[in-house]
Amino acid sequence: MTRKANTKVSRLAATQGCRIQDKSKRSKDIQDALPDRSQTSSASSPASSSTNTTPLWTPRETLRDCYRETVHRLYPYYTPKDDFEILALSDGHYKEEATVEGITRFIDAAVADFKSREYAVRMATQCLDTKADITGLKPRPGDPGVFTRPLPGSDYSVRLFPGSKAASEYCLDFVLTQTGEAVNSPFEFSLFAGPGPTTPVGFAPTVGISPLECSFGVAQEDISPGEEKFVLRDGQLCTLRRPGYKDVQFVVPMRRRPEPEKPNVDTIEFPAYV
């Protein structure tokens, strides 16, 4: 695939709001093709406990699965005909009349950047075949590994939901405790993350955490309602600081990794903790 073609495909999908870890070793231009925002329902089940029931949705195994959700949410009146249409519509740039005819004209204009429709579809398929290991997509009802806890003295809860497993990333957002609806920064606060209880001293500093969207150049006030999220790492100790309240601390869950194969070596053991 040529770099020119890669750039054209990448231009169809901005990286605001989520990011992907490379699992297939594709060209970076293709790996970075992501929706304009986390295109999932911002409302989840009421905030109370871990959501570990059977998922109610199609698994997000590839970018195609993720982008198809995006397109359905943005344009429920239109069914994409092929992979190119899924990718072209996934960034939410089409904002004209809500008609099939309007979207058809938009797609035709996008195809004009390629030498043929068949070539455009082939480029899009290579992108959408990428395995999904995304940080930033909001959870859906029934998704596993989602945890919510109410904040003392507040109508809001902190929600943690999985991001990229390869990068050991978890995401945090805020939801209304009564409804589970996701909201952007509902009060003044500062969020800090640093070494957890099992992290060696001096391994990593404690740092302030800003919304993921800001790392893509989006001003915090311009983040779409309910789409804001903060990226943490498995096992980090986090502190939420609010004026007039006690600090709230929590440790990010750690996901279990498969046991590595034992090499054919002699092993000597030392104490894990002293």
Largest beta-sheet characterization:
5 strands, antiparallel
Helix content: 10-25%
Average pLDDT confidence is 80
Low-confidence stretches: 1-16, 23-56
Which structural category do the helix and sheet elements fall into?
alpha+beta
**Can you write the helix and strand succession as a string?**
HEHHHHHEEEEEEEEEE
Supply the number of helical segments: 6
| Percentage of residues in strands | 15-25%
Count of β-strands: 11
Please describe what this structure looks like.
This protein is of the alpha+beta class and 274 residues long. It has helices at 3-11, 28-31, 63-74, 83-89, 100-111, 117-128, and strands at residues 19-20, 134-135, 147-150, 156-162, 169-176, 182-183, 190-194, 207-208, 230-233, 237-241, 248-251. Strands 3, 4, 5, 6 and 9 form a five-stranded antiparallel beta sheet that branches.
